[in-house]
Write a structure and sequence with these properties.
By secondary structure, the protein is an alpha+beta fold. Helices cover about 45% and strands about 10% of the residues. The strands form 4 sheets. Strands 1, 2, 3, 4, 5, 6, 7, 8 and 9 form a 9-stranded antiparallel β-sheet that branches.
């Protein structure tokens, strides 16, 4: 073959690459980095040291120099890093293959979820596509997400998977490792697609496959997969179809066995050796039975001289990395296609986020994780992978001859699903319930009869025996669960075949069937419970309408079975709880049941406060669902629901009160004020209770009222602000009184010195001896109400000679207002004095003001009013006449108030006021 043609076909399908961790910056003594070298259900993974420094570094070395195509990280469920950076490392040509010689290029990073939404019960599997070449892969692991379970600020990785192609040296025609193409491809080029898939990654190489599959089953599945490819090339399509079906079945079996191996290891850790031995026996028998049912030797074609290999069917007792499947002997070896030299694949130098091709949430059922989950409920947000009983029941039951000779009990794996794996923190009663359901009694042979009934049972079931016969009822009372299931199925068939016409006989059969339904509902085996619900549904939807039975019969049937359904709705097993609650909801929609309104009345009957939390919570959830689905119909009213709610709020379990609180909020949103009639009064005493406070705050929110807490806070702030203003005013007014008192003591300093040489008159001397009682020193008004407080109010609101500064809110004299703004005011830096009008102009307007020259110029020897901008007569008299006179300043609002006061208030006080004020008084401090 031409060299160019051979090289043009050089490619390979990406597959799982073997590696080992050669460096970690830190590790926990129990969860060491070497755990990442293996993939199995028992892998514990790596955890950093407690209270370590970040970031943490980890380096893995591939077996050979490879082209990396996909990287998978399975994170811990609560020791979760915020992000992980990836670097690929390679060694320059001629340098030794050592960690110190590696040169790294950054690929990018991925961010990980904090896992809060799953309740820290699931793990995140991150898969990213890359395209890089090297010997090493380095992980830079950043700080952890903070949560209540991560007590020591650690990070953890359960498993790492690298998928890619091994690279060889540049092409050399003498290289013995270079294999030629498959001859069949030369004969039929269309077959090349079966070998050459450069972008195809097998699901068997996915990390989730090995982490949740029994290692032995995983090895067999890989061998069957290669057999299937061989069969396709040989055009043996029937054989390939059988192999495909076997692979699908073995994947389910591998998941079951993986979980059982975890449970067995947990039992060993807990030193429960009886349970470990039982689990080992179950696994051995189940494994061998599956091999026999699938005819595994025939599938692998191990019989005959053509395939002398022997497969070891003994179960694997330890976990180890799955060995690669053997090379097919019959087929010529396919070509190992060598990519070009790595220099043609430059290492990417990207600082961006890596393309995440998939993010999966995988259940965490490994029992050895130190996961302190306080008050953990049994129902996880992400349920572990389980195989429904409907699927498993399709496979034939193993015959009696397959039992072990020592008559040890064998679990009928084919007719039940495995219970979800249990964490250490699951409550003991739930563990017991799951174990009880798991260890089912042995099935009888086909020719066996049910064991005889006791005298007590015979008397109890006498009515049912009269209707259905002793043989059938004996099966319903049998210790063998399959007999009990068969009895309910037989009753179902018999009731369906009953002809119409005899109503009394139909009533008798209904009462007898309800008796057996009650026993089936209480059964601990899920299959029997499900058969009882199936029978009960047929009775209410088919049998009753068919025979036209009346409301009393329906009411009696519902009242007899509801207590059993309520009890089942609080069962420890999740599926029992869910099925019971779902069936009650379904019953409420049956036309015959809905017409009686019995179910609604029974559901809203208040329960005793001594009822267990799980049962009480299920009752509340049932009522909540009924209200959400049907509203106030079918017997539900505000009165009976609220009475039920008020009793439920007194339960000591928080999860019960949470459901009731949620229901009350929904009802108030729909119906409003009538809901409050059933609750305590909305007052301060009631709101001291957290529950009532939260409810009433929600009511306020629905009504559009501001929360009382915000109103109280706002009121307190207003009171505090008001008090501060009062305090400031008191201080300012006290300063004013001190100033007035000083002027009264020294009247000679308060005399007006008129411009020129006007002599002082005797009247002036007499008036200068006045006191400050009942008189305003600025406007001269006398008033009996001018006590200290009265004067304060007068200064603040009424005195026509004063005004409040618009910037600092101080009370100042209008005559000195411009000087105050330019020299005293807190905002004085924002003003400049106009050279024309001498007023204080804001700086942003100053340039335009000066340029316009539109202001009234200040004339020398006259006063300039800052209110109306007019020039007025000089001296204090000029100010008094302008600010208080009838033809005075029209921009002074207090002038009209002074003019409209009764006569005599300020008569004959001009000189007194002027002399009392003493020329130009300073600013009078007012409150801000």
């Amino acid at each position: 073959m031409d060299l160019h043609i051979i090289h043009s076909k050089i490619t390979v399908m990406p597959h799982k690459l073997q590696f080992k961790v050669i460096h970690a910056s830190g590790q926990d003594d129990i969860y060491r980095a070497s755990e990442l070298n293996h993939h199995s259900p028992l892998t514990k993974g790596w955890q950093s040291a407690r209270f370590c420094l970040y970031p943490q570094d980890m380096v893995i070395q591939l077996e050979t120099r490879s082209r990396l195509r996909k990287i998978q990280i399975l994170s811990h469920q609560f020791l979760i890093p915020t992000k992980i950076e990836f670097f690929v490392g390679d060694v320059p040509d001629g340098a030794p293959l050592l960690l110190e010689s590696a040169r790294y290029a950054r690929l990018g990073y991925v961010s990980l979820s904090d896992n809060e939404k799953t309740g820290y019960k699931a793990r995140e599997l991150k898969s990213v596509h890359v395209d890089a070449v090297g010997h090493f892969l380095k992980l830079n692991i950043h700080k952890n997400h903070v949560n209540k379970h991560n007590l020591y600020n650690q990070v953890g990785i359960i498993a790492i998977n690298v998928i890619g192609d091994e690279l060889r040296r540049p092409y050399d025609i003498t290289d013995p490792d270079l294999l030629l193409d498959d001859p069949r491809i030369e004969r039929d080029p269309a077959l090349e697609g079966l070998f050459n898939k450069p972008d195809y990654i097998s699901p068997l190489d996915d990390l989730a496959f090995d982490m949740y599959q029994d290692p032995e089953i995983a090895q067999i599945i890989r061998r069957l997969e290669r057999k299937k490819q061989e069969a396709v090339l040989q055009e043996r399509y029937d054989y390939a179809k059988r192999l495909k079906q076997a692979i699908t079945e073995l994947q389910k079996v591998g998941e079951k066995l993986g979980k059982m191996e975890v449970e067995k290891r947990q039992a060993v850790e807990n030193e429960d050796y009886d349970k470990a031995r039982l689990k080992k026996v179950q696994m051995d028998e189940y494994r061998l039975q599956v091999y026999k049912d699938l005819n595994l030797n025939d599938l692998l074609e191990l019989t005959g001289s053509r395939h002398p290999q022997h497969i070891d069917l003994e179960p694997v007792r330890h976990y180890s990395p799955p060995t690669p499947p053997p090379r097919l002997e019959e087929l010529p070896p396919p070509t190992i296609r060598t990519p070009p030299h790595y220099e043609e694949y430059p290492l990417p130098r990207s600082d961006s986020v890596l393309e995440v091709v998939s993010t999966k949430t995988i259940p965490s059922y490994y029992p050895f994780d130190d996961m302190p989950l306080p008050n953990q409920k049994s129902k996880s947000v992400i349920e572990p992978i389980t195989v429904p009983a409907e699927e498993t029941s399709k496979s034939p039951r193993p015959p009696e001859t397959n039992r072990s000779k020592n008559n040890s009990p064998r679990t009928p794996h084919d007719s039940r699903r495995l219970p979800p794996p249990k964490l250490k923190s699951i409550k003991e009663d739930e563990e017991k319930a799951l174990t009880l359901e798991e260890e089912l009694p042995p099935e009888p042979e086909n020719n066996q009869e049910a064991e005889p009934m006791s005298e007590v049972d015979l008397r109890e079931a006498s009515t049912a025996i009269d209707i259905f016969g002793l043989s059938l009822v004996s099966k319903a009372y049998s210790k063998t669960w399959s007999y009990r299931e068969d009895a309910l199925t037989a009753v179902h068939h018999q009731m369906q075949q009953m002809p119409t016409g005899n109503k009394e006989e139909a009533k008798s059969m209904l009462r007898a069937a309800i008796f057996l339904v009650k026993r089936g509902i209480d059964d601990k085996v899920y299959a029997v419970f499900r058969a009882a619900l199936h029978l009960y549904r047929m009775l209410l939807t088919e049998f009753v309408p068919k025979h036209k039975l009346g409301k009393p019969d329906i009411t009696s049937a519902v009242e007899k079975t509801l207590p059993n359904l309520f009890h089942k709705a609080g069962d420890t097993a999740v599926r029992n709880r869910d099925d019971a609650k779902s069936f009650i909801q379904e019953m409420a929609s049956f036309p015959e049941v809905k017409a009686t309104q019995t179910l609604a009345h029974e559901c809203v009957k208040p329960f005793k406060l001594t009822l267990g939390p799980r049962h009480a919570q299920s009752r509340c959830e049932i009522v909540e669902s009924l209200y959400q689905n049907f509203g106030l119909k079918g017997g539900l009213t505000i009165d009976n629901i609220m009475k039920f709610n008020v009793e439920g709020l007194n339960h000591n379990a928080g999860e019960v009160r949470d459901v009731i609180e949620r229901l009350i909020k929904t009802m108030y949103k729909n119906h409003g004020a009538p809901i409050k009639d059933y609750l305590p009064p909305d007052d301060e005493k009631t709101r001291k209770n957290t529950l009532w406070r939260q409810l009433f705050e929600y009511f306020d929110q629905v009504d559009g009222k501001p929360p009382r807490t915000d109103a109280k806070k706002q009121k307190a702030e207003e009171e505090q602000k008001k008090q501060a203003e009062i305090d400031a005013l008191q201080k300012q007014l006290q300063a004013l009184r001190d100033m007035n008192a000083g002027k009264a003591k020294k009247p000679e300093a308060a005399k007006v010195k008129p411009k020129g040489n006007k002599p002082t008159t005797k009247d002036d001397d007499d008036v200068s001896m006045f006191t400050v009682d009942n008189i305003c020193i600025f406007c001269g008004e006398r008033n009996e109400s001018f006590t200290e407080e009265g004067l304060d109010i007068h200064y603040w609101k009424n005195c026509p000679m004063l005004k409040r500064c618009t910037n600092c809110k101080q009370v100042v004299e209008i005559a000195t207002y411009t000087d105050h703004v330019l020299t005293e005011c807190e905002a004085k830096s924002n003003f400049s004095k106009c050279p024309r009008c001498s007023e204080a102009i804001p700086k942003p307007e100053y340039d335009q003001h000066v340029a316009d020259k539109a202001c009234n110029p200040h004339k020398t020897g006259q006063n300039h009013c800052p209110l109306c901008h007019e020039n007025i007569s000089s001296g204090e008299d000029g100010w008094k006449e302008h600010l208080m006179g009838r033809t005075g300043c029209k921009q002074n609002p207090r002038r009209l108030l002074a003019l409209n006061k009764p006569a005599g208030g300020a008569a004959g006080n001009k000189t007194t006021a002027a002399r009392g004020r003493g020329g130009k008084a300073g600013s009078v401090r007012g409150r801000k």
